[in-house]
Known about the structure:
- The structure is a single chain.
- This protein is α/β, with parallel strands linked by helices.
- 32% of the residues lie in helices and 19% in strands.
- Among the domains are: 13-23 and 51-232 and 351-416, FAD/NAD(P)-binding domain (3-Layer(bba) Sandwich); 238-347, Flavocytochrome C3, Chain A, domain 1, CATH 3.90.700.10.
- The longest helix is centred in the last third of the chain and has 22 residues, at 478-499.
- The protein is globular.
Amino acid sequence: MNPRARAAEELRTDVLVVGAGIAGLTAALEAARTGRVVLATKTALGDGSTHYAQGGIAAAVDAADVAAHVADTLAAGAGLSSPAAVRALCAGGPAAVRVLAERGVEFDRGSTGGWALGLEAAHSTSRILHAGGDRTGAAISAALAAAVRRSDVTVREQAFLAGLRTEDGRVVGADLLVGDEAEGPVHVLRVTADAVVLATGGAGQLFSRTTNPAVATADGLAAAFRAGAAVADLEFFQFHPTVAALPSPFLVSEAVRGEGAVLLDAAGHRFADRADPRGELAPRDVVARAIAAAMAEHGGAPVVLDATGVSARLGRPFAERFPGIAQLCAEAGLDPETTPIPVTPAAHYWMGGIRTDAAGRTTVPGLWAAGEVACSGVHGANRLASNSLLEALVTGGQVAEDVRRGPGAARFPDDEVVEVPGPALPLAAHVGRRDLQAALWEHAGVVRDAAGLAVAAKLLTPQEDPVEIAPDDLGVPRSTREDANLVLAARLLVAAATAREESLGAHFRSDDPTTPAHPVRRSFRRTA
């Protein structure tokens, strides 16, 4: 038992939102219009993946573009997207973006004074809004966090989700561990709520190479699965093609390629157009595999992103359009105006997640999910660039509206359901985090096959019965709980990737590269 721990705290609220990225902040602000809201965040308010988003937010600000945005999103999803969810997302985007502007986000403007619209991979036209050049996520996080601080939302920072509380088959609250273990006392906060909204982000820490921050450890997905919620599309993990292969890696936004940067292999030759006529602006899964193949052809040497011609195309310095990337390059001793940037793919975004309908309602009454942790079917087998911030923004608002209708479970009769036996409590990890990350990168990364997935599955299967971790056990470090969540998420990902024997979108099987004409969505659900 932690000697600095204190007694449990009890709290009652109408809505508990867990997570403080764009989805969680938006859900909290909208829900606070009609009720009491508690917003819990694992670290500081406004931290998380949203803060690091460079590319921008896609929106059909011209009403005539909505249909094309829908078509582009469906095409990227490789036949697995939900058309109804995609239409709701694209139609709701323009109004949601305007609300962001009203809340203080200053989007970049063009020479005519209107919002500047950029082009990114697999978009048929320019529709990407940016703020601060390549600091869109930081601008959105700052504006929404400030709005939350001005609101009546009760904020609890350094609050780790230890588990969801259930009664008679519905979620009624959550157990949170509050406090920084390194600096002060930790205590249990038991929240009772009419509605719990999970907006906990993704799980990039499953892989040794990722664009995600350290907090992305599948906490929300793991808690929801243990509480009985279905999860879906877990085989579909997007690998961003261009992450700087430098001592301190960083994402190099898709928008750089949208402004004319090209990929070159170790011999100095362009190669992306051999994989797809759209070249560097093909969907991310296509470009990531092309890079992986080019690296394999040259003994694993990184490819380079040649952005030396971008400033001439823009008519202004690279650093004016991409200040964040330019600064990170400078810190690495590299000038993108004169020197190509070495890049490799890295785990970026999980299309799969907690199964929800378009309003964020899960298969368990009382529980909703929004943002990357959710799987509404919008992204299908591969996410369209810059649709992630849009989805988090739109669904965050939709969830807040839907919770007012009261509890009830969403149903998905067309899903193929796989039942997975397991306990309702977390199990202590039997494998170290670095070993897990290395195994998933090698065997469940950009390219997969049955043999490699079997190796990963064996590593993730404990040889002895693991120890259960109680939500209120203050003697268990946060990192141990994170490791338990990562092992569970990894087992589900590998099981999903093994079950889908063909290739589809971001899930590529080298032992069967064929794509099915009518793919089926597969959900996983825990059984006792």
